[in-house]
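Every protein is a chain of amino acids, and every chain bends into a shape of its own. The fold becomes a row of whole numbers, each drawn from a learned catalogue of backbone shapes. The protein below has been through that process, and both of its lines are reproduced in full.
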Amino acid sequence: MQKYVLLGNWTDHARETFLEIPERVELTKKIIGELKGSIDFFFTMGEYDFIAIIDMPDEESMVKYLLKAYQARYITINTLRAWDDTEFAEMVSEL
């Protein structure tokens, strides 16, 4: 599985319909599950409205999710590919 960190903000439209945000989070979990992935979602204070940590089987699955997320126009996100300490140590050991 590949790990991604999303740093996100709600769009103006999402803020206007903020009572629907819990439903949209559940829909996001469903979509990611259908793509064979998983998500941990956190609401935050500060520069970002939320962060999410997503595990996906491959980049293609992640891109499919991102396209669906952008299509809904409720969020803006910065996506970061992440490696855990074991994966990083393995990459470094190959140098």
Observations:
- The chain is about 45% helix and 30% strand.
- Residues 2-93 form a domain with the Alpha-Beta Plaits fold (CATH 3.30.70.920).
- The first strand starts at residue 2 and ends at 10.
